[in-house]
Design goal:
Layout (H helix, E strand, L loop, with lengths): L1 H19 L1 H11 L5 H6 L1 H15 L6 H27 L7 H31 L7
């Protein structure tokens, strides 16, 4: 259950910066032809990536540690951006070599990693306070 919550939390934390960076994300979405509401669509991979990573990194070990939480935040951010870069490569890999695209990807990666680190800490705090580990493995 915590893994699903972590995926939803990662999605929410990914959507807020996209909304705050409105003009940048709108330009990015328009340039690459991302349909619909770009905030929801651009952050959508964080749902699955976040849930899987939380389960793998945080729920499976024996202790809840902040180090694993930060790894969850960083890897969720990187995984989400890499999924979008992969989608762009499938559409037309040459877009990845056009001048502003690598800079935009680097900027978005930097922002998402920072958000992933900062947002993962309160999630782990809540998990440590509210969650009790069961006796069975």
């Amino acid at each position: 259950m915590w893994s699903i919550f972590a995926g939803l939390y990662a999605f929410g934390c990914g959507t807020l910066p996209i909304l705050w960076l409105g003009s940048v994300t709108t330009a990015f979405a328009d340039y690459f032809g991302v349909p619909g509401d770009e905030a929801l669509l651009l952050a959508s991979p964080a749902l699955a990536v976040g849930a899987v990573l939380w389960w793998r990194l945080v729920e499976r070990p024996t202790n809840y540690r902040y180090r694993e939480s930060v790894a969850f935040g960083v890897l969720t951010a990187v995984g989400t951006v890499l999924l979008w870069v992969g989608w762009l490569a499938v559409i037309d890999w040459r877009w990845l070599t056009v001048y502003p695209v690598p800079l935009v990807i680097a900027f978005l990666l930097g922002v998402t990693v920072l958000v992933g680190i900062v947002s993962s800490l309160p999630l782990m705090f809540v998990r440590r306070r509210l969650g009790k580990r069961s006796a069975s493995p």
